[in-house]
């Protein structure tokens, strides 16, 4: 496993990379204590070249995302290490990843688009259960009606979610 801290406009992200792909993304706060933040990526004795390559691709994707220059948001994603979940979860996540930056949808709409109408609650569990925020853009799911963006478990909660949604709207306005 490889651990890397990535600085963003909304604080640090802790990236955990396995040989299969990006295993976890965590919001790590505005600043990292010196004893928590390695001078570079933290590698263990089993770190492989493929993990280094996956990290490089992940950092490139995040650089483009935060710069607002992400052209192909789905096909340019780094490999994701999410084989441990059910096919239902994968379908929900795949549909979510295929929503355009800046687009929002409700759990009910996400369930419908995923081919599982009437499963809004189970869809909510699928959205909530992954460990790859931003890469699997759970921030794009809002409450029905769109007036309330709802909660967000990453960063500073709804403040971070609103920042991501606003950022994505500016990405779309660059065309």
Description:
This protein has 175 residues and is α+β, with helices and mostly antiparallel strands. It has two domains: 2-67; 87-172, Winged helix-like DNA-binding domain superfamily/Winged helix DNA-binding domain (Arc Repressor Mutant, subunit A). It is built from five helices and four strands. It has helices at residues 49-67, 87-97, 107-113, 120-129, 158-172, and strands at residues 2-8, 11-17, 22-29, 42-43. It has a four-stranded antiparallel β-sheet. A hairpin with a 4-residue loop joins β2 (11-17) and β3 (22-29). α3 crosses α4 (120-129). It is globular and about 45 Å long. The mean pLDDT is 87.
Order of helices and strands: EEEEHHHHH
Tell me the CATH topology of the largest domain: Arc Repressor Mutant, subunit A
Largest sheet: 4 strands, antiparallel
Distance between the amino and carboxyl termini: 38 Å
Q: Strands across the major sheet, in which order?
A: 3-2-1-4
Q: Give the helix/strand class.
A: alpha+beta
Strand content: 5-15%
**How would you state the average pLDDT, rounded?**
87
Unreliable parts: none
Could you state the CATH homologous superfamily of the largest domain?
Winged helix-like DNA-binding domain superfamily/Winged helix DNA-binding domain
Label the overall shape: globular
**How many beta-strand elements?**
4
Helix segment tally: 5
In terms of topology, how is this protein built?
Elements: E1 2-8, E2 11-17, E3 22-29, E4 42-43, H1 49-67, H2 87-97, H3 107-113, H4 120-129, H5 158-172
Antiparallel strand pairs: 1-2, 1-4, 2-3
């Amino acid at each position: 496993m490889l651990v890397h801290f990535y600085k963003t406009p909304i604080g640090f992200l802790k990236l955990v990379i396995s040989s299969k792909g990006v295993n976890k993304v965590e919001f790590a706060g505005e600043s990292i204590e010196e004893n928590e933040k390695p001078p570079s990526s933290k590698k263990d004795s089993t770190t492989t070249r493929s993990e280094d390559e996956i990290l490089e691709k992940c950092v490139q994707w995040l650089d483009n995302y935060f710069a607002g220059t992400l052209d192909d948001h789905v096909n340019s994603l780094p490999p994701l290490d999410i084989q441990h979940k059910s096919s239902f979860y994968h379908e929900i996540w795949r549909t979510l990843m295929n929503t355009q930056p800046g687009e929002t949808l409700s759990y009910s709409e996400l369930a419908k688009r995923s081919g599982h109408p009437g499963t809004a609650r189970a869809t909510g569990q699928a959205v909530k259960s992954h460990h790859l925020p931003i890469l699997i853009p759970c921030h794009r799911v809002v409450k029905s009606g769109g007036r309330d963006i709802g909660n967000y478990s990453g960063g500073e909660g709804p403040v971070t979610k609103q920042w991501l949604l606003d950022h994505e709207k500016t990405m779309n306005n660059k065309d």
